[in-house]
């Protein structure tokens, strides 16, 4: 029997470091990476392998996984790329939201290819990404490009399933090991319970079929990612380079935890998800401050405009708080720090600083977050966030004001 084929769309940190390593360790899949970065595709082909260092963040124990025997395809090579998608049993998507529409277009083209070939085997598209409403977004974007017959085919033979790909993975390679990665050792992938394979089909052993991954995704983004980015934004403003340094700053650590607690209270009120107990909170904080993994703040705060938009890790829980009668003071204060630093190496940071300079704080906050001032909840969040930006940025401006006044 031929091995089932797996195509991983996005050969970056999650694509290689979680999806690639987990499928490879099963030992029974033919693995292909697809990416838009031609240099990355070429480099992976030439090297023929990469290593993932999987760490237990509490004990420091390590397993090294050497992934090899894979193939790579450049997304620009449309025939090869679509052929790989059309022949796959599993397609794991590991891209940033800015690429969602492009991948949805590719998956719609794959549907047409499979239908034209008369393929009647199920393909499971495993959606990975920190995004609330992932399944709905992709389904709507794909079906909008298909005709009625193609949509009917897709609903029968192409299954979309949200997954919670939540490994912390960073680049670690240099020289001969330039594609090496290091991260935590999460060995389970929660996957939405909607895969229509025939009885007896063997799913990957690392799949944990979850009846409500979307809710689990909300919990992850609006609490775990919330505190992670709170530490990152405040740490960036303080001049720190790693999240470990930020969390060891008593003030930053406390403010980030307060923001997290506001989000958790809203999740409990809205969805019945209980606030973790003290032991779980202690473990969470220890993992952020682990001596075995130093997550760089530059990685955490990349693409700040995306992270400050409505529905993402700050404004999502903030609006939920307001809906539940909880004031999101600390969430919005943490978010405000995202407007108060500028990193020349991060284009979105530079763009946000330009918006603040040219539009002023109120209009810049509205433009970045896309909050609607005509909607009461969103207007309140908009006003609170703009005020927080003024407060956070004030200490930087005071010396300038005094120097001008005193001559």
TrEMBL record:
A cellular component annotation (GO) from this entry: cytosol
Domain Mannitol dehydrogenase C-terminal: 220-352
Molecular functions (GO terms): mannitol-1-phosphate 5-dehydrogenase activity
InterPro entries: 6-PGluconate_DH-like_C_sf, 6PGD_dom2, Mannitol_DH_C, Mannitol_DH_N, NAD(P)-bd_dom_sf
Reactions this protein catalyses: D-mannitol 1-phosphate + NAD(+) = beta-D-fructose 6-phosphate + NADH + H(+)
PANTHER family xrefs: ALTRONATE OXIDOREDUCTASE-RELATED (PTHR30524:SF0), MANNITOL-1-PHOSPHATE 5-DEHYDROGENASE (PTHR30524)
Matching SUPFAM superfamilies: 6-phosphogluconate dehydrogenase C-terminal domain-like (SSF48179), NAD(P)-binding Rossmann-fold domains (SSF51735)
Pfam families: Mannitol_dh, Mannitol_dh_C
Any GO BP: mannitol catabolic process
The protein's name in its UniProt record: Uncharacterized protein
Keywords: NAD, Oxidoreductase
Mannitol dehydrogenase N-terminal domain residues: 5-167
Native organism: [Collinsella] massiliensis
Keyword Oxidoreductase: yes
